[in-house]
Write a structure and sequence with these properties.
The protein is of the alpha/beta class. The chain contains four helices and eight strands, in the order βαβαββαβββαβ. The chain has one domain (11-151): Rossmann fold (3-Layer(aba) Sandwich), CATH 3.40.50.
């Protein structure tokens, strides 16, 4: 794969997280009963950033966890995941904000909803994504989006975060 374009640098990513945090607070009329759950790996990093920003804005701690959706995927045969999920709070009756780095076909989000529902019955589930690249295979649409990026199927959107990639940016890669 070769890099085609940088579509978000570190500052743009930070602004998107701040904007999504404010949108979550506005739509939910505050942060009461909100918890944030990120889809491993990079969705969990974005979720942590969102949790910290909402906590900072609202002056109260927002619980955050992360979810390994491997066992809930319909396209993975060898299901050995979920042991790395960490949700140290109850989701029952809460407003769960699921966070993914990139929404593409909708299959990861569907798997995450299944995983959350197995842990309890939330009051509601909303989906936040740093990037929405389209090409849905399921009727799933994020409630909060950092940036809509129309792509071709020959392209891949790669979110890089400091914790794993030593950079904060989003790039479009051309599949060779």
């Amino acid at each position: 794969m070769t890099e085609k374009a940088v579509i978000m640098d570190e500052k743009a990513m930070s602004r998107a997280v701040v904007r999504i945090a404010f949108e979550i607070i506005e739509r939910n009329r505050g942060a009461e009963d909100i918890c944030i759950v990120g889809i491993l790996r990079r969705g969990a990093v974005i979720a942590d950033r969102l949790s910290k920003k909402i906590s900072e804005i609202e002056g109260k701690t927002i619980e955050a966890g992360y979810l390994d959706i491997t066992n809930y995927r319909d396209d993975i045969k060898d299901k050995t995941g979920d042991e790395s999920s960490e949700i140290p709070f109850e989701v029952e009756g809460k407003k769960v904000i699921l966070v993914d780095d990139v929404v593409f076909t909708g299959r990861s989000a569907r798997a995450a909803v299944d995983a959350i529902m197995q842990r309890g019955r939330p009051r509601l589930i909303q989906l936040a994504a740093l990037i929405d690249r389209g090409h849905r295979e399921l009727p799933i649409r994020p409630d909060y989006v950092g940036k809509n990026v129309p792509t071709s199927l020959q392209e891949t959107v790669k979110v890089e975060v400091m914790e794993y990639d030593n950079a904060n940016r989003v790039v479009i890669m051309l599949n060779a």
